[in-house]
Design a protein that fits this description.
The chain is mostly helical. The protein has one domain (about 5-135). Helices cover about 75% and strands about 0% of the residues. The chain has five helices and no strands. α1 (about 5-35) packs antiparallel against α3, α3 (about 75-100) packs antiparallel against α4 (about 105-115) and α4 (about 105-115) packs across α5. The mean pLDDT is about 95.
C-alpha cells in the first residue's frame, strides 16, 4: 500500500478544497448569468459574466456577481483556500528538494523551482508519485 507523508497529504487536501470551492463558484456564476436571461448575438448562452458579449451588461453582471459572491462569504473562503494551497505547495516543493541527495542537483533544482513554473510543476508531480516508504 502506498504511503504519503504530511506534505503530500496536505497538498492534495488543499488542492481538493480549493477545487471544490472554485467549482461551487463556477456553478454559482453560471446560475447567476442564467438568471439574467442573457443570450449573446451568436445565440450562445454564457456561463461566465466575462463571457457576456454586451460590455454594458457584462460590466454590471461582473459587479453584481462580485457583490453576491462576497456577501455569501464564498470569496473569502476561496482566498483562504488559495493561501492554504500556496503554503501547502511550497511545503511540498521544499520537502521534494530536501530529499535530493546531491548538493549540486539540489541547488540547481532549488533555483529552477523559484524561477520556472514548468520545473516547479514537474517537481510537484514527481514528488506526488513518490511512495514515502521508499525514502530513507
Amino acid at each position: 500500500m502506498r504511503k504519503y507523508n504530511k506534505e503530500q497529504k496536505e497538498y492534495m487536501n488543499a488542492k481538493a478544497i480549493l477545487s471544490a470551492l472554485e467549482d461551487r463558484e463556477s456553478k454559482m456564476e453560471a446560475d447567476f448569468v442564467k438568471s439574467l436571461g442573457v443570450v449573446n448575438p451568436d445565440g450562445s448562452i454564457p456561463t461566465k459574466t466575462w463571457a457576456i458579449d454586451d460590455d454594458e451588461i457584462a460590466d454590471k453582471a461582473i459587479t453584481d456577481f462580485g457583490k453576491i459572491e462576497e456577501e455569501s462569504g464564498l470569496w473569502a473562503e476561496i482566498l483562504k483556500a488559495r493561501e492554504n494551497f500556496k503554503a501547502a505547495e511550497e511545503a511540498l516543493v521544499q520537502y521534494a528538494l530536501s530529499i535530493i541527495p546531491f548538493k549540486k542537483e539540489r541547488e540547481i533544482l532549488t533555483q529552477a523551482a523559484k524561477n520556472s513554473i514548468k520545473h516547479r510543476e514537474k517537481i510537484i508531480s514527481t514528488v506526488l508519485m513518490l511512495d514515502v516508504s521508499t525514502v530513507k
